[in-house]
Each structure stands twice: as structure tokens, then as C-alpha cells.
Amino acid sequence: MSELVRTSVDGLVGTVWLSRPDKRNALNHALVDAAIAAITRFSEQGVKVVVLRADGAVFCAGADTSEFDDGLLAASERLLDALMTVDLFFVGAVEKPALGAGVALAAACPLVLVSADAWFALPERDLGMFPSGVLAFLEPLIGPRRALEFGLTGARIDAVTAQRLGLANEVVPGVMDHALRSWLDLLLADVLVTSSAAAAWRTRFSTDEFRARKAVLDALLVAADGRQL
After folding, report:
1. Which of 70, 158, 185, 215 would you call most buried, defined as having the most Cβ atoms within 10 angstroms of its Cβ?
2. What is the pLDDT of residue 227?
């Protein structure tokens, strides 16, 4: 097990904790590789549901800008691709702020629980960029105008607003484990239904329209100095 992720298995449920708290769980090459390896291992072990969680004060701060190059962008895309293609039901347990690519990670999960004091934001504008790559995941959930607005402003989306817009299923006012247990009981009551639900969710990301839109948006990710990322 990599020191950058923690994992556990409880029957048909696997849990992955992003565990790079000193870097706010920013996605670098090593963290992405470790997370994908854990997800792949779960799939091989017969796990049906995977919960994504995080250690530290931030769920995921997005891409690690100290490694900001084409390779990092490709690594981040591989993690998102795993969530969109691996035959597992993913639950995002967002107990802390999610930023940038961390928002996309949550959006790619078919079920998202968010703690009452957690929030989402797209702060890429502070780096001189518009977060066009994340829009492909946000637009189907909250609508193109709101997705564009949050990318332009970098404003925080609090937990209640995230639920109202469709980015989260449930706001958890208390202990996340209690809410997770209720949902996991439902998901495991009939794993065939859950697998079918996961497959239905994945179809959203497998259409030619989605892939074409995402390719165009990814190509627009350009820094203010004109450097293509």
C-alpha cells in the first residue's frame, strides 16, 4: 500500500483515503498512480462499492502546480477515467473542501455525501487560468451557465448549495460514517441493482457527445501567459 493512499476492505466495500495531507491531497503523479492501483486492486478482489475519502484538512486541492505539465494533466485524467470506466460504484465522501480537479472527482461519482461545513470551489482563475476541463463534469449536473459562473468567479459552493444544484446527494450534519452506513446498506442490499445503477451512470461519460465536448474543453486550458497546459 502506498503511503500516499490508505485503503481498507469490508466485505464488498473498499475505501480509499487520499493521504497527502501536507500538500492538501493535491494530485501529483505518485498519488494518482497509487489511487488507480488501489481501485484496480479492489476490482480484482470482487469489491462492488468504493468510497473515496481524504485525510487532512482538504478533500483534494486539485492538481499539484509544482508538477504542472502535460504529464500531470494526463495523470489527473487517468484518475477521472478510472472513476468513469471501472465497473464499480463510487461514493464520494467529501468531508472537507474540494478544489479544482477535486470538484471533478466528486462530480464523477454517482453518489456524493458532503459534510455540512465542506465546500467546493474552482480557484484556477487565481493561477491565470479558466478551469475549462472541469466544466465537462459540472455542466451535466448544475447546468452550463452556473458552471461557467463558478469558473469565472472562483466562488465557494457551500454544502447546501451543492445539494440544491445537484453536485451532492446529501448534506451530512453529523458523523459521516453514520450517513455512509445507511447508504452502503442500501447499495449492498442488491448488488445487481447497484451495479446496474453504476453502469447507467457511466453512460453519461461514455457518449461521443461528452467525449467530444471534454476534448474541446481540455484544449482550452491555457495559462494567462499563453503556455498550453
Report:
1. 158
2. 45
